[in-house]
Amino acid sequence: MTEAIRVALLISSDKGAKGEREDLSGPAIAEKLQGLAEVVATAIVADNKDLILEKLIYFADRLKVDIVFTSGGTGLAPRDVTPEATLLACERIVPGITDAMRLKSLEVTDRAMLSRAVAGTRGKTLIINLPGSPKAVKECLDVFLPVIEHAVETLRGEAYECAR
User: What top-level class would CATH report for the domain 5-156?
Assistant: First the structure.
């Protein structure tokens, strides 16, 4: 890895955006990333597809972060639109990431099957939807973090020999 992994956090929460609820998932993500990546930007937006999409594009195209982790808005509620915004932002989907997270989460709760989280790439940025719960965020990151360096090296064009 030639340079540090740069990450942005995007929290989708109506109450969080209004200051009516303290965000706990963002700090949970940042804690799990210590020693692995640098959080260079954080934003909290309402559960609004256009606002989420705008931030995803900004983080990927303007800030050129390696990864955007979103938290919240991945369930079945009518206001849960993070996956839709993510799909609009992405050029390619990476279903294995969220499939693996759901599979591991099913060992903890049967509600994991209700997650609509997606992952994909926009340019050289990987975008990954995480749940809104701090506990679930940590469980999902435990699944992804073992491959974070390889994922970023591959997107940056630094990894050429991927066979083990």
Answer: alpha beta
Mean pLDDT per 10-residue segment, the chain (164 residues): 90 92 95 97 97 98 98 96 98 98 97 97 98 96 98 90 61
How far apart, in whole angstroms, are the C-alpha atoms of residue 117 and residue 55?
17
Torsion of CA 109, 14, 28, 31, to 10 degrees: 150
Closest CA to 11 of 65, 82, 77: 82
What strand order describes the sheet that includes 67-71?
A: 37-45, 5-12, 67-71, 125-130, 119-122, 92-93
**Residues making up the chain, counted from first to last:** 164
Give the whole-angstrom CA distance, residue 54 versus residue 50: 6
3-state secondary structure of 44: strand
71, 137 in Cβ contact below 8 A? yes
What six digits make up the tokens of 2?
A: 């030639």
pLDDT for 160: 65
